[in-house]
Amino acid sequence: MEVDPSRRNKKPRPLLESERERLDEFIDSIHYSARYSDDQFEYRHVQLPKNMLKKIPADYFDSSKGTLKLLWEEEWRALGITQSLGWEHYEVHEPEPHILLFKCVSPATWITLNY
Question: What does this protein do (predicted)?
Fold first, then answer.
């Protein structure tokens, strides 16, 4: 389940201060799911307030899909999403484009890979 680099900006696109300020009102309304896992990864989804999508800059969106692009860590953190280190935005739930899917290597896999 590799992330398709063509679905990202070529490099992280930082938000301008004015763009960031427009998003501040939504940060407390971001919803984080419980974590769930398989034998390789932990997953969670992050639900942005629907009105927040209207305030996110257009170049964060994939015009062919009508959803957000896959965001670099710097980009999703700039939107106000807060998670521990190691999470990667790997998919957008297309029927509900305000739901972003994240994954990170599960602790059991990390231990196996490092010993």
Answer: Binds to the catalytic subunit of the cyclin dependent kinases and is essential for their biological function.
E strands along the chain, which residues?
31-32, 36-37, 41-47, 61-62, 67-68, 88-92, 99-105
pLDDT band at 11 (very low <50, low <70, confident <90, very high): very high
Conformation bin of residue 66: beta by default, left when phi > 0, alpha when psi is -120 to 50: left
DSSP 8-state code for residue 11: S
CA nearest neighbour of 23 among 1, 57, 43, 52:
52
pLDDT at 27: 96
Residue ranges making up the domain that contains 48:
8-113
Model confidence pLDDT, tens digit, residues 69-111? 999 999 999 999 999 999 999 999 889 999 999 999 876 555 5
* Residue 2, in any domain of the structure: no
